[in-house]
Amino acid sequence: MSASIAIQGLGVERRYGGFRALKGVDIAVKRGEIRGLIGPNGAGKSTLIDVLSGRVRGQPGKVLLDGKDISALKPQERRRLGLARSFQRTNIFPALSVEQQLRIASWAVTDAGIEEVMAELNLTALARTPAAEISYGDQRRLDLALALVGRPSVLLLDEPAAGLTVEESHGLATILRDLANRWNVTVLLVEHDMQVVFSICDGITVLHLGQTLAEGGVAEIRADKRVVTAYLGT
Ligand code: ADP
Ligand code: MG
């Protein structure tokens, strides 16, 4: 049964002091799927990505990659198994060139395919340019490129379009949809632009106050009154 599930969290909890940021979340992303992870600020989206990627530990809770329990593995070990992530804030070094940063990211993996990743994300012409000198939109594509080095099988993306114009967000969304199709990458996408989520996701999980509020296809979630209410904060 778990064969078609690429990444799964089971009963994931996370406390910060006495505060329960995640209260037993179950999530399963099928192979090849783009699943949107949405919810109001503070819902626990980034914390869930942190637990799945290994940046923080679930307390308790399990993380399975292709059905294998990886809960005890460090982020770099998960990365080597094909589980990559990006961060909500850009994670790049301003002084290094686009290509230098991709080379650093490739230390964690074999067969990095850096040229290919740059080509996919329209970064080839900027390979030798320091990150500080490229536009913010290009920097966000570099963030995505860093996660794609080594062609991971699963991508956890935390607001990759944050700070982009509407047009740039939609451009990024198109790239993501295309990558998921052609590279057969499984994607868990945290994104607040609902237009983007509704246009490229196969399924959606809604988090609210550290719990799963709703789960389903795009049409189902759009029509769900609880989701609308959670977003309106009433
Ligand atoms: P989201 O990404 O959905 O906006 P987060 O996962 O960032 O939400 O945060 C969920 C809750 O956990 C928030 O109330 C946040 O303040 C709290 N939180 C997150 N990280 C920490 C931390 N390192 N220390 C204390 N509280 C945290
Ligand atoms: Mg967040």
From TrEMBL:
Residues 7-234 form the ABC transporter domain. InterPro entries: AAA+_ATPase (IPR003593), ABC_AA/LPS_Transport (IPR051120), ABC_transporter-like_ATP-bd (IPR003439), ABC_transporter-like_CS (IPR017871), BCA_ABC_TP_C (IPR032823), P-loop_NTPase (IPR027417). CDD domains: ABC_Mj1267_LivG_branched. It comes from the Bacteria. One of its GO terms (cellular component) is plasma membrane. Keywords: ATP-binding, Nucleotide-binding, Transport. One of its GO terms (molecular function) is ATP binding. Belongs to the ABC transporter superfamily. This is Amino acid/amide ABC transporter ATP-binding protein 1, HAAT family. It comes from Bosea lathyri.
